[in-house]
Automatic annotation (TrEMBL):
InterPro entries: Ribosomal_L18, Ribosomal_uL18_bac-type, Ribosomal_uL18_bac/plant/anim
The encoding gene: rplR
Organism of derivation: Candidatus Harrisonbacteria bacterium RIFCSPLOWO2_02_FULL_45_10c
Alphabetical list of SUPFAM superfamilies matching this protein: Translational machinery components
Keywords for the protein's UniProt record, in alphabetical order: Ribonucleoprotein, Ribosomal protein, RNA-binding, rRNA-binding
Name assigned to this protein: Large ribosomal subunit protein uL18
Family, per entry: Belongs to the universal ribosomal protein uL18 family.
UniProt cross-references to CDD domains, sorted A to Z: Ribosomal_L18_L5e
CC annotations in GO: cytosolic large ribosomal subunit
Classification via NCBIfam families: L18_bact
Physiological role: This is one of the proteins that bind and probably mediate the attachment of the 5S RNA into the large ribosomal subunit, where it forms part of the central protuberance.
GO terms for biological process, alphabetical: translation
Molecular functions per Gene Ontology: 5S rRNA binding; structural constituent of ribosome
Length: 116
């Protein structure tokens, strides 16, 4: 139990340290990703106004692995961003390593024209 608590504390510290350096503006909002054990969700956030411009999740997706679902999510969020007029974002991966679902999502969103 102690190891799990320590692991969660380390993740919280990494998230806080990462978040202190990243701020989304109206011209370049923040693209935040969250990975749970089952789902991946993302938001495009304008921190200066304090509102979410677009959001998406893998919750309704049934087929494929988690990485494949994250890849589809990248395409979906890039389309939603284009619909709201967002072309450039600041990528906030939180406490997660750029690997697996996070990498699949980021590469897919970049391939659909989202710049970060």
């Amino acid at each position: 139990m102690k190891d799990i608590k320590h692991k969660n504390e380390q993740r919280a510290r990494r998230r806080k340290r990462n978040r202190a350096k990243i701020f989304g503006t109206a011209e370049r909002p923040r693209l935040s990703i969250f990975c749970s054990n089952q789902y991946t969700s993302v938001q495009i956030i304008d921190d200066s106004a304090g509102r979410t411009l677009a959001a998406g999740s893998t919750k309704g997706m049934k087929s494929g692995s988690k990485s494949a679902q994250a890849k589809i999510l990248g395409e979906v969020i890039a389309q939603k961003a284009a619909a709201t007029g967002v072309k450039k974002v600041v990528f906030n991966k939180g406490a997660y390593a750029y690997h697996g679902r996070v990498k699949a999502f980021a590469e897919s969103a970049r391939s659909k024209g989202l710049v970060f």
